Amino acid sequence: MSGTTTTKQQQKQQQQHHDGPRKVTVVVIGAGHRGKNYAQYALQYPHLLDVVGVAEPRQYTRQHFQHTHSLPDDRCYETWEELSEAAKFADCAVVSTQDQLHVEPAVAMARKGYHILLEKPMAVREEDCRTIYEEAMKAGVILAVCHVLRYYPPVRKLKELINAGVIGEVVNINHTEPVGFYHFAHSFVRGNWRKTSLSTFSLLAKCCHDVDLVLYLMGNNKECTRLSSFGSLHHFRKENKPLGGGSRCLECKVESTCPYSAKKIYLDSCPTKPSWPTSAVCDIEDSPHGYLHELTQAVRNGPYGKCVYESDNDVCDNQVVNFEFSDGATATLTMIAFTKNLCTRKAEVYGTRGQLVWDEARGGHVDHYDFLTRTTKIYSFEEDIQEVPESWGHGGADFFLMEAFVKAVASGDRKHIISGPRESLQTHLLAFAAEESRVKGEVMCPEQDPRWAV
Predict the structure, then answer these.
(1) Is the separation of the CB atoms in 67 and 41 below 8 Å?
(2) What is the CATH number of domain 149-237+313-397+419-452?
(3) pTM score, two decimals?
(4) Where in the chain do CATH 3.30.360.10 domains reside?
């Protein structure tokens, strides 16, 4: 959607500006893909949000962000420590550093009195998640974790229908996260999330908000009593390398037969300007040789051009998590790399009087089948979602999260936040429990183990 067009969503926001709360100011810690994603709200709705500072170690990325948001030099920091040492100069902070670097800036900003929008996962260790939770509670600041699915119109409709009892008592939820074959190769085989010791396990990195979705739809009145998980790194292993394959895609004799070829993923479909996933391969500064040349050199020499069967990756490419709840209800979450669809989630909720299905790959609407009348009612969200500019991630869910966070900070009303500290901590604890179950081959009992209790 063109940035010059005034959408219905923008008109609504402008009306809120005249009728309601003040403009919110924000600093961004980590100006990579996710940080820029959330900061664009200030560009689209400058009457509601103003980006006033940034902390980012990469010079080009920091300077590009500075230029985009017209920031003065003295509000652009190389490290989050420098920013946190300055006197508080904004209402809130977006913490969108790499996963393993969340805890220290989040704690520091909470202690400074900043409200916090924290990219998921909260942290990569159970004790660090607890520390963030405790410090935010102690400081009395708003902490919203980016479990964006809770804010997405189709998911909110699912929750509304469940709460209204239209399908009776929920008995089972079946949820699938299809990561996408080239997305997984990019992020979890060649990229920043390929190795547990460098980031975290793939269920936490990719699916902690899918775990959260299961808990959200099941309801706060149901505790997870038992949990098990199975999964492995099934395919991206050295023993599965094709005969005659090279160590780098651009020098490989069998590259043309490989669906995970870096040439296919990055170069054959190269856009005229950086966009995901090519934007993650290299920082493109002004180059006399042009974008394609720089991208080719990065693929030729960098980690994104390595053979997927020769990387140092160790995270699961397929995993299932099974939940049992206090009333006997059950749920299953499946994360799978080998899919055509790219992160187009599907949730099926089975109740005693009907069922609900949300399938992003088939239009994103919610289907309600009623057992009594044997009829299906379809709830569509095209108007809500189409009014969100295309630049927003997760099909527009990121926008609805940011909208809610800005409202909460502006008004001081925490009811806008439905991914608050307690719910988010519980989600993360169960993700850690699931991984321990997978590794040890044991059933976890969160209700009986204080490690998994908030």
Answers:
(1) no
(2) 3.30.360.10
(3) 0.91
(4) 149-237+313-397+419-452
